[in-house]
Amino acid sequence: MGVNRAGFSIFDDEAVRKAAEQEVIRRYLIARCDYKKGKISEDSLLRSKLLMDDLKLKIEDRAVVKPTWEYAEYKRSLDKKYENVVVMAIEMPDGSFITGRSSRRMVAAAAAVLNAIKQLCGLADDIFLLSPVVLETLQHLKMNILNNEKSSLNVEEILSALTISATTNPSAQVAVEKLLLLKGCRAHCTAILSDRDEQTMRDLGLDVTCDPEYLTTNLYFN
After folding, report:
1. Does residue 72 fall inside a structural domain?
2. Residue 173 CB: number of other CB atoms within 10 A?
3. How far is Cα 53 from Cα 165, in angstroms, rounded to an integer?
4. Per residue in 23-62, pLDDT tens?
5. Is residue 73 part of a domain?
6. Helix axes 108-121, 170-178, angle to 10 degrees
7. How far is CA 132 from CA 12, 25, 83, 135, 162, in A?
8. Do 46 and 91 belong together in one domain?
9. Alpha-carbon distance 143 to 192, whole Å?
10. Last residue of some domain: 62, 84, 100?
11. How many domains does the chain have?
């Protein structure tokens, strides 16, 4: 006679419910960006919003969103030159949040990834994983030789530079290995990522969402 083992299953209803709610929020954030890009209809976006409303969910219920907005507002409050600053935050494995902002040297996603792996390595903020000379050389190549309109290095370019630096910089070598620990972490950005940056972040295993705003051409910072 067979034994029905269904009664012995372990089922955490609260955990399942929270995971489902997070997925609803994630899909709504993606829908907002897809609508901005013209990929979906307004009806599709509204259906996603109705589900959020039915479950009484807010975008901020995705924990990584609020720190992103708060850091962006903080930078804008400091100086008008940060009016169009783009910020990304990453929720770390220990539950803390690491932020990065856009600059003339790199996009916000690249800065956030570098800051995240520096934390994982236990390195101070003032420790350089990449030499400013290396960054300037890459930007020279990008702007003056490849005739790219934007000087800011994307995530893939920064990671390539980090990998090259790892051959001579022990800290960079450790940092490269720490990239594996970002898999499964959630991230949020205040602007829509380029297709290339979005793919690189997904290749790293990061769960990325964005606000439905495009980057402006009015770039700002130091």
Report:
1. yes
2. 14
3. 48
4. 999 999 999 999 999 999 999 999 999 999 999 999 999 9
5. yes
6. 100
7. 50, 39, 25, 5, 12
8. no
9. 22
10. 62
11. 2
- 1: in domain: no
Instruction: State both tokens at 76.
Output: 């804008």
- Domain check: are 46 and 143 in the same one? no
Tokens representing residue 90 in the block: 């990453």
Residues composing the chain: 222
Pair (93, 42) in one structural domain: no
Q: Which residues pair with 209 in a beta bridge?
A: 188
Same domain, 35 and 67: no
Give tens-digit pLDDT for 75-119: 999 999 899 999 999 999 999 999 999 998 999 999 999 999 999
Whether residue 109 sits in one domain with residue 71: yes
